[in-house]
Each structure stands twice: as C-alpha cells, then as structure tokens.
Specification:
alpha+beta, globular, 496 residues, ten-stranded mixed β-sheet, 34% helix
Length: 496
Amino acid sequence: MKKPGFIERHNLWTEAQKEASEQIKAIVKERDLLLIRTAWEDQHGIVRSKSLLPQAFFNALSNGMQISTGTFLFDTGGTLVFNPFVSGGSLDMHQMTGAPNLVAVPDPNTFQILPWAKRTCAILCDLYFQNGGAMPLSSRGILRQSLAELHQRGLEYIVGLEVEWYLAKLEDPMLDITHVGTSGNPGESPKVSAVEHSFQYLLESHNPEIHDLLLILAENLVAMGLPLRSVENEGGPGQFEFTFDPIPGLQAADTMTIFRMATKQICRQQGYLASFMCRPALKGCSSNGWHLHQSLVDRTTGENALMSHDSTALMSDLGKHFVGGLLKHANAACVFTTPTINGYRRFKPNSLAPDRAGWGLENRGAMIRVQGGFGDPTTHIENRVGEPAANPYLYMASQLISGLDGVDLKLDPGSPTHEPFTADNPLLPKSLNEAIAYLKQSELFHRKMGHQFINFMIKIKQSEIKRFQAAVAELAPEESLKQVTDWEQREYFELF
C-alpha cells in the first residue's frame, strides 16, 4: 500500500483541491509544460519561487516542496535582520533554529499557465513546518485565519481591486558591476524615460503612445483568468489604474499578487519597467494609491450585509460598526496598508489621499468612502489609505481584524464628514516609524496575528527605517521630507 504523502498525512487539502491537482497533472502533460514556478509570498508581499520540472512538481503535489526559511530573514533591502544560528533563530521559535527547511504546499486553486513565458506555469503555496503545523509568519496563512473567523460568523468577504502603478521606458538597467549593490545596500536604480508627458489624465489622444503595451498586458491578464475590469490613464507620466471585478477575499489577494508579478515581468520583457512604488522619483509624478473596495455578504442568503434597509441610514448597523473598527485601528493598521517609508509621502491634505481617519459618502478625501446606500445591493466601502506596494494578504487581514473588532464592540464611526481635511478626526501617521509605534501598542493585532508575527514585522520594519535614517542623516529634515530621496528610489522602485 502506498504511503500517504505530507499533504494527505496532515489533511491539508479539501476534496476540491485534490480533484484540481489531478486536472493540473493532466494539463502539464497535455500542454508539454516544462517549468512550474512553485511560488510563495514573503512578508513584503513579494513573490519568491522555485522552478520545478514536471516530475518534481508532481511529487510536490503529494509531499509539498522543501524551501529555505531564508526569505523570511531579510528586510526590503536584503539586510539580514535575524540570525538563524542562535536558539529560536532570533525569532523565539524553536522551529526556526538553524535555518531549517519549510514545506511549501501548492494550492491547486491558484494554478496558472503564464502566457508570456514559454512552456511555463505557476502555482502559489501555503507554508508549513516539517511537523505539518502552519508557519505563523506566512501572510497568506494570516489572511486565511481572518477569513475563517469571518466565515464562522456566516459572512463572506468580497473585494474589488483598484490599483495605480507607473510605466516607464527602460533605458539602462544599471547592471554594470559597480552599480549592482550588495545586501542591505540596493544597487543604482534603473534609468528610465517617460512614456508620455505629465498630467494626461484620461486623455484619449494619448492612447496611440501606450495602446500596444496595454493591449499586451490586458491580453495576458485575461488569458490567465484574472477578472480585469478597466484600464485607465492617470495623472502622472505613465501612471495607470487597473481595476478588477469584485471577488472573494483570498482570491482577490492572490489576484493582486499575480497581477503585480505578471505586470512587472511582461513590461520588462517588452523593454519597459513597471513599478508599484507609491511615489517614485520621476518628474511630475503623482502618488500611487491602492484603493480597496470591500463588502460583506451573508453566506446563507447571498444578501449584501452592508446594505441599509433603513431609508435614513447609509449602511446597515453591521456596516457602520465595521467602519468604526477600521477608523479606530487605522493607525496601527498602517503598517500593513502603507508598509514602506515612501508610502507616507502620499498622506497630504486636500489631495486624493486621506490625512486622517474619517469616513464620508462618495467623498474621495475621506479615508473610508462609502458607495451605495438605502436598498442598494452594490453598497460597499472603499478604503483609500493603502499603497500598491502593500502585501495583499496583510492589507486585507488588517481590514477584517479591525472591522470585526468594531462589530464586536458596536463601535460608532460618528457622522460622515463633508470636509475630510478639516474634520476633527485622528490624524494618520506621518511616517512608518510612527505607524510602528501604534502597532506596538495594539492589543488587537497582537492577539489576532500573534505576538511572534507582530514582533517579527516590527523588527523587519525597524531595520528598514534604521537604514533610511542613516542615509538621510546629513540632509536637513525639510529636505528629506520635501522630495523622494535617492535611498527610496534604490530601495523600492525596481523591487516593487
């Protein structure tokens, strides 16, 4: 009798996943696929992968894939933050001592053929220790936990993605050996040129300059089954916004992960650079935002749980309490919605980004914009605080954790504001360092995400901040606040 593999022994797949895995094997053989990029996300939301040949991949569909813990030890610049060769791996986790292997278990629901890469496909993984226990530093795992709690309440999380990013023509990748950088010291940022002049917001006459590449992107995204909804030109030179149809939470986070990966790879293949950095050091650029459209659905009736049945109310009581939780925990959640130093350059008064934690009906200056109303089944909330470099799984988990706390405590969000930049609402953090101070004090996030994970993220981000502060130490404070620094461009422009 055949001995059960790792996945079966630990009961890690549903029956649907088991059936899908058999279909995947058939597709790999029929399509003569050679490389299977078996991937997982790190704490920054960046995709890491190993390319397996078919037989090794088929084994992974039974036993998972052995991977190093190494990708969890570094900050965004590649600085080694944790020493794995001391007890607990500097993380107070005995399973991390000595840089041991983890087991990456493919999720058959995420299998994708990559249309831009010959004989290649990809699949996302969930991470486990060798004993079958869930890896507590896995951001996909943290979102799964939040969704499981929501499902126990009889609710489904539905998410629509609205993502801004920059496209630039790659002129020089700066790969001369003197420019490539070292661990903790990213290399020279690639040199690029603009694909259009600045502030061509929704300008139809600019389409001939950008149409061919956008068509290639759209064709590839649609070929992968991503629910692309719209493509539009934004305000900055080469700034675009892609939106996606509303889909369930985990699928939405996976879609964002795959979308960023695909966009960067396809653009690079065509001689361009795509960046999801919040505010690149490009002349005339506007900040990129990632607006997260969210609703809750009753799993039994299929009815929108945020919709108001009271003609005097914008939302249901559950919806208002959910908003109350988002506002109460907004500052601590910024570490997950706006996780880079660069992202805080976006929070400015009288802009299309919030500077304080408030809410309003159809108000783009408020952090939470409510769309819909009495009897409207499309009623949902849009959180405008996020940056497109955010880890999708942690961004969404932070929303569920915050919102459900508001539901449990029946928090009142107060009156919706008509003047979001002068309203008496708490100011959002002005820096990543300030956001971390709020997260340290958050009993809610420590309880829901786990002390180990929160302490892990704080140390990772403190390493990033320490390197930034050292780099700008000789600049006058107003200088480093006024303009995007060379450090930020090196750190984030190509990475994200």
